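Hey, resending since the last one bounced:
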Amino acid sequence: MVDIHCVVNAADRLGEGPVWSPAEQRLYWFDIKGRRLSWYEPVGGERGAFDLPMRASAAVPRAKGGLLMATEKGLALADPGKGVVKVVRPYDLGEGFRTNDGKIDMAGRFWWSVMDDDGGKRPGSVFRTDPGGTTTRVLTGIHIPNTVSFSPDGATLYMADSKLQTLFAHETADLSKVREFAHTRGTEASPDGSAVDAEGYLWNAQWGGWRIVRYSPDGKVDRIVRMPVEQPTSCAFGGPDLSTLYVTSAWDELSDEARAKQPLAGGLFAIDVGVKGLPLPVFEG
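The structure tokens again:
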């Protein structure tokens, strides 16, 4: 039995994109549909938030300070202390498309995904931004691209297509080499955002499943953590020694009756899962 604590009852409509900033000892995350960036510092309990001028969903801490964010207007720099956001690399994602998930890889490159906001009816894409500033579309044809996580050696990219209820494993040296890693077909759960721990296991938040699932590197279910909310959305390791798994959640699409039964929906949760997270680099660009 693990202890699960709601550390911020944020009431996010669509909480997403948790990311740990080691320099600040702070966890950041988004409410995509609420257009808000929030943060929480586990030592001291300080927290805060500010409204964003556009929808944003994923970020990576920068070596120069602040965050590089994936937004519906393009890549943007954020200075949370000043509440300032500046789009530095505009992109036209297409009418009705927005960014969704994203993470940095072991080589310091920021990977971020784009999806059709109408339930992924049209296929989305995955982009990769190098520290030098070059952005490349690297994957297409994924309807609801999630997870965007990497094995400790950087050789494997884990991607979920939530619409297909499937997790895939791509070889980063040749992304066309892909295999099915795991699936949730036959259940109400869909794989959403993920985090990789120091042992190389993948922790996956499962929308509609009331759970977080830990998968071994060969795709077998190692552990299931039951959540007090139906729609956990993503997770990230944080804390001074990366020993806490932070989980975002959402109340979007819940009926009034369902939401009343889970008053913590949209909150940020902290879980001691007994294993440390995989340290991730910061973005040098």
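The mean pLDDT is 97.

Sorry for the duplicate.
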